[in-house]
Amino acid sequence: MLASKFVAARALVLLGCGWIARRHARAARRLGIPLLAASRDAGRARAFAREFAAVDAFGTYEDAVRDPRAAGALVCTPHDRHLRDALTALEAGLHILVEKPLAPTLAEVDRMIGAAGAAGRILMVAENFHFMPAFRHVRRLITGGHLGELRELHLIARGYRRHAGWRLDAGACGGGVLIDAGIHHVHNLRWWGGEPRRVFTLAPPRTVALGGEDSVDLLAELPGGVVGFLANSLGARGLPRFQWSTVTGTNGTCFADNRGRWVLLRGGRGTRLSLFLRDTRGHVALLRAFDEAMRTGTPPETDGAAGRRDLAVVLAAYRSIAERRPVDVQC
Ligand SMILES: NC(=O)c1ccc[n+]([C@@H]2O[C@H](COP(=O)([O-])OP(=O)(O)OC[C@H]3O[C@@H](n4cnc5c(N)ncnc54)[C@H](OP(=O)(O)O)[C@@H]3O)[C@@H](O)[C@H]2O)c1
Q1: How far does residue 81's CA lie from ligand 1's centre (Å)?
Q2: Cα 18 to averaged position of ligand 1 atoms, centre (Å)
């Protein structure tokens, strides 16, 4: 597997062979996109390459991005490394798909967007929620007028999970649950409800070890008086695994399973259940969109600006927690 010689410059370099890299590797295999595995540890890269049939393995990120077979890089490292790894890939002439959040600060995101623009390369944030069939269906119900005028969005993503490693380090993570898993739901809040103008956020006392907050309750003022609410927690013991999002308009409500398996629409015209069986987490569609953006030069739906706006809401929420007051979102 490691010795394939004839791979066109279409390969993607995985920077970091951790948890999310495995999801991307499975998606790449489904799409027939060749992979180059890069780890800080050559043995780990080789094992990863064997497991996912990658065409080559590298013991440094720098060597991997310089490989002539590479067209793009997937930044799958801790948040505080994203800018550095993105710049390494851009300097080697690669397009970049960067895991969420693009970086822990807007200043770093601005440098990344500027560098991608100057290099004429695609910058995409790996926001898989945007590519989940169920969540795209919710968006279509909203834009198609099936719910009437939008009124409220309630996104409930609460459970209990312990983390180890870099997520316990505030510097590496840039915060706690909201900047990590929660930013996916912040994306949905924006995508479905429009750009939040102001947020008021509270965080209860922590119960699990993390670099920042383990729970947040975020209230958002959305365009047209629409109200958004996100309850996001890793510190809520005893809850069932089921998590959901509801969007309510003047004509009805849609109720989505956060794992993307189904969406229920209830309202004036009765009840309709839609089931989603393939690529429920959107990883294949996400990678297909990146591949297409690289080939055509067309900016992806989740470009750098979209990733920046997601982060701006998270950072406003953090200021709100610190200052214990509603805070305007700085764009
Ligand atoms: N979209 C999603 O659903 C989703 C889910 C989980 C995570 N993510 C995002 O994906 C990124 C990685 O998260 P993950 O859960 O995959 O983390 P992970 O399992 O810890 O993997 C991160 C990888 O980064 C590399 N790395 C480089 N410098 C490191 C350092 N100083 N400390 C630790 N690892 C270092 C390591 O790979 P090598 O040792 O091989 O170099 C490590 O395996 C984050 O941005 C995270 O928010 C997204």
Answers
A1: 10
A2: 5
Quote the ligand 1 centre to 160 CA distance (angstroms): 20
pLDDT, position 241: 82
Q: Which value, in Å, is the radius of gyration of the alpha carbons in the chain?
A: 20
**CB neighbour list of residue 183: distance below 8 Å, 6 or more residues apart:** 100, 101, 310, 311, 314
Q: Three-state SS for 74?
A: strand
**What domains lie within the chain, and their CATH numbers?**
11-128+284-303 (3.40.50.720), 131-281+311-328 (3.30.360.10)
Which atom of ligand 1 lies closest to the CA of 17? 40
Interior/surface letters 157-187, b for 16+ CB within 10 angstroms, e for the rest: bebeeebeebbbeeebbbbbbbbbbbbbbbb
Secondary structure (DSSP) of 269-310 = TEEEEEE--SSTT-HHHHHHHHHHHHHH-PPPSSBHHHHHHH
Euclidean distance between CA atoms 179 and 230, whole angstroms:
13
Render pLDDT for 182-235 as a digit per residue (tens, 0 to 9): 999 999 999 999 999 999 999 999 999 999 999 999 999 999 999 999 999 999
Q: What is the pLDDT of residues 28-58, one digit of tens each?
A: 999 999 999 999 999 999 999 999 999 999 9
Give residues (CB < 6 A) around ligand 1. Answer: 16-20, 39-41, 44, 76-79, 81, 99-100, 126, 128, 165-166, 180
Q: What is the DSSP letter of 268?
A: T
Confidence of residue 7 (pLDDT cuts 50, 70, 90): very low
Burial of 296 (0-12, 13-18, 19+ CB in 10 A): exposed
The string of pLDDT tens digits covering residues 137-195 is 999 999 999 999 999 999 999 999 999 999 999 999 999 999 999 999 999 999 999 99
Phi first, then psi, for residue 133 (nearest 5°) are -55, -40
How many Å lie between the centroid of ligand 1 and the Cα of residue 87? 17
Structure-token pair, residue 292: 């297409």
